[in-house]
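User: My collaborator sent over this chain with a note saying "see what the structure looks like." That's all I know about it. Can you take a look?
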Amino acid sequence: MGGWVKAMVFCSGLSNRIASCFNSALSGTAATTPPCGFLSDKPGAGDYILDFGFEVDDRFFSVTQAGSPCCVYSYNVCTANIGVGCNHSPTANQLELTFLDNFSLAFSDTKFYLIVY
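Assistant: Without extra context I'll predict from the sequence alone. Here is the result:
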């Protein structure tokens, strides 16, 4: 509560590697050393599931695509509370993020920043 940032992630996309992060639930270097206590899964192209280890289905999110400037992506954030548009069934601690390439109309991998409030 309180509106402060709870988590931040920079994901490398293709490798599904959390390259940079912050976890407000941890202290010391563990809070900023990747993967910061988070788990990530990539069940398909452009489809990412992040597990934060604490409830996120009642939070606000900010997503920014950081991939190649050649492509324009639409994205969808899905949580257990939202439920609409999910490719999978996220738990209360998980967020599913999908990216659609607007030119090829196919799911596509990209780098992204995600902030959880």
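A starting point for your reply to your collaborator: Strands lie at 7-11, 18-23, 39-44, 47-51, 61-65, 73-78, 94-101, 106-107, 112-116.
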